[in-house]
Amino acid sequence: MTQSTLVTAASGDDPGDGLRAVRSLRELADRLETLQVERARSLGWSWQEIAEALGVSKQAVHKKHGRRI
User: What domain range is 8 assigned to?
Assistant: First the structure.
């Protein structure tokens, strides 16, 4: 499914389609977040800088991504 199809399904009248689209969008957002956190760390960003950019606490971002990097 394309992103525009997912957005249409997520806001549509069928709850089954909508919920599946929401799940797909969440998975995409998680993958993009991981990619960008890894990129930021490789460029020398601190956990605090990443947390501020994501609007979460330093502890939350480190807990979620610290083991992977």
Answer: 3-65
